[in-house]
Amino acid sequence: MNITGEMLIGQSSVRGAEGTLRAINPATNEKIGPDFRVGGAAEVDRACTLAQQAFDIYRETTPQQRAEFLEEIANGILALGPALIERAAQESGLPTARLEGERGRTVGQLRLFATVVRAGNHLSATLDSALPDRTPPRSDLRLRKIAIGPVAVFGASNFPLAFSVAGGDTAAAFAAGCPVVVKTHNAHPGTSELVGRVIQQAVATCKMPEGVFSLIIGNGNEVGHALVSHPAIKAVGFTGSRQGGLALMRAAAQRREPIPVYAEMSSINPMFLLPHALAARASQIGSAFVDSLTMGVGQFCTNPGLVIGLAGEHLSQFQEAASHALQAKAAGTMLTPGIHSAYVTGVERMSAVAGVTTLGQGLPAGAPCAAQATLFATDAATFLATGQLEDEIFGPSSLIVACQNEEEMRAVAEHLAGQLTATLQLDNEDHALARKLLPTLERKAGRILVNGYPTGVEVSYAMVHGGPFPATSDSRSTSVGASAIDRFLRPVCYQDFPADLLPTAVQDGNPLGLTRLMDGNLIKL
Ligand code: NAP
Questions:
Q1: What average pLDDT does the chain have?
Q2: Residue 427 has pLDDT above 90, yes or no
Q3: Which among 21, 157, 255 is the best mutation to test ligand 1's pocket, defined by most ligand atoms within 8 Å of the CB?
Q4: Dihedral through CA 205, CA 144, CA 110, CA 299, nearest 10?
Q5: Strands 141-147, 126-128: parallel, antiparallel or unpaired by DSSP?
Q6: Mutation test of ligand 1: which of 24, 36, 241 has the most ligand atoms closer than 8 Å to its C-beta?
């Protein structure tokens, strides 16, 4: 499949007239062809209008039709073969093996959502029988969830496949019954076009209305803003910087009709080293932690950027093991020159903070956009007094905080802002302290791990990849896993409807074979 540099608006390929941009290979800092033609407000309007026209038809496609559409996209991505992986590697600097794994995850999540749609539990079909003899009488009430409307998706730079054009947000929105308009991430426009063309073809093959999918090329400030402000758009999915997420939230709130923005932004993913676990295996935890910290050049949103332990001999052992392991870690290529320079600035800023020491570093960087991993240390008093130590440094950098006692450890936990994850390293004898920390950590994080490392997010039914601000803009939802579909649904209640006007999900006789809540009991009737 050729990369043409065109936008995909419904079934058309459109050359933008607002300038050009090129991808950059971060390993060499060289530009990669072809030129991508940037669009503007006219293309955004065309894509959103088509999405609006498609909405009522697409949202009422059968579960089987929608599941087949998702599976067609998954198959099309696999059919692109090595060309997709090669282009994504050039544009992101990510190794081939990592991208192949990410492709598997992308295809897996599309297939998971096909299963979710077929099962139909996302519809939350609920029936309350009429009670005509009650005083006052109760009406016949039936609830189902419907798709929220066309969704704008802003892909992430750090997952050019799994969190981009056909990534988690798009898969969840399609599964819910929402058309999607994607703004390409300019770090991987070629990868975006390849995947976008697969979706465009799947729309045609599955005979979906053409406005179900469009792909717009452009800059966030213009095209991104126009997209979020367009009246046809009813929700936004975003993964990226806090600054970008906040800008989109502001744009969404300023609309005549404000809309929800599901932005995943920044998290430093604290890891608590409880004393008995630390005494038993400080060195082992130290080196495993460094593997997690440096995986993917630290460019995971769940990267462990903060470690909290009790000062003393065992924390020193942990620090020594971690510093030693870090010394052997090569400097890896970061995703973009911008992300690399933000990392270098963040590390410089952290090393200049009074009370923070540089504990260890990885091998020096010898190539453009290569990041030298860095480990910092401080004490709890400095951490609690210095707000900037909580800022995310996107990349392989982490800060170890030494606490004088358990109370100080709990004070650090209480001080933290919202996080995607919190991790406890613990042994049986640590359970009493864990019980004291858990109520705080539940308030702070979307996922709490025991004796693991936060990088690596399973795409499954129970996964939560979310958390209170600034981890995300809406702590009530997840952007990974089956429940991500809920962000793009809303409930509608049908009161005293004649049988032939009721939607299938809540009709008598349960034609879809759903498990439904009937007068308070979950049954398949
Ligand atoms: P980004 O700068 O936030 O950009 C993400 C997407 O949002 C891009 O398509 C961008 O478009 C758009 N955008 C940004 N600001 C916007 C605005 N004001 N209005 C409308 N659209 C806007 O993120 P990034 O380039 O991927 O990475 C930069 C930083 O984000 C990293 O250094 C890191 O701190 C953070 N990051 C965090 C995560 C995470 O999971 N927590 C993941 C990736 C990145 P344009 O590029 O065209 O402006």
A1: 97
A2: yes
A3: 157
A4: 140
A5: antiparallel
A6: 241
Q: Whose CA is nearest to atom 28 of ligand 1?
A: 241
The three state secondary structure string of 425-479 is ECCHHHHHHHHHHHHHHHHHEEEEEECCCCCCCCCCCCCCCCCCCCCECCCCCCC
Bridge-partner residues for 30, per DSSP?
Answer: 25
Q: How many CB atoms lie within 10 A of CB 4?
A: 16
Distance 216 CA to ligand 1 centre (A): 16
Would you say the CB of residue 225 lies under 6 angstroms from ligand 1? yes
Distance from the alpha carbon of residue 25 to the mean position of ligand 1, in angstroms = 18
The answer to whether the beta carbons of residues 217 and 39 sit under 8 Å apart is: yes
In degrees and rounded to multiples of 5, residue 493 shows phi and psi of -105, 135
Q: Catalytic: which of 301, 369, 392, 403?
A: 301
CA of 243 to the centre of ligand 1 (A): 8
Map out the domains of the chain with their CATH numbers.
7-265+476-487 (3.40.605.10), 270-450 (3.40.309.10)
- 208, burial (CB in 10 Å: exposed 0-12, middle 13-18, buried 19+): buried
Mean pLDDT of 483-503: 98
The catalytic residue among 43, 102, 193, 264 is 264
CA-nearest residue for atom 48, ligand 1, is 220
Give the up-direction half-sphere exposure of residue 476: CA atoms within 13 A in the CB hemisphere: 5
Task: List, for residues 254-288, the tens digit of each pLDDT value.
Answer: 999 999 999 999 999 999 999 999 999 999 999 99
Q: Is 264 among the residues known to form the active site?
A: yes
Question: Can you give the pTM of this predicted structure?
Answer: 0.97
DSSP 131: B
pLDDT, one tens digit per residue, over 298-336 is: 999 999 999 999 999 999 999 999 999 999 999 999 999
264 pocket-lining for ligand 1 (C-beta < 6 Å)? yes
Core vs surface per residue 340-378: b (16+ CB within 10 A) or e: bebbbebbeebeebeebeebbbbeebeebbbbbbbbbbb
Residue 20: what residue type?
T
Collapsed DSSP state (helix, strand, coil) of residue 362: coil
Is 181 within 8 Å of 233 (Cβ atoms)?
yes
Q: Which residue CA neighbors atom 8 of ligand 1 most closely?
A: 185
Which residues are 448's β-sheet partners?
422
Check if 301 is active-site.
yes
Q: How far apart (Å, rounded) are the C-alpha atoms in residues 71 and 383?
A: 48
Ligand 1 atom showing the smallest separation from residue 266 Cα: 41
What length does the chain have? 525
Taking the C-alpha atoms of residue 150 and residue 227, their distance in angstroms, rounded to an integer, is 11
Centroid of ligand 1 to alpha carbon of 238 (angstroms)? 8
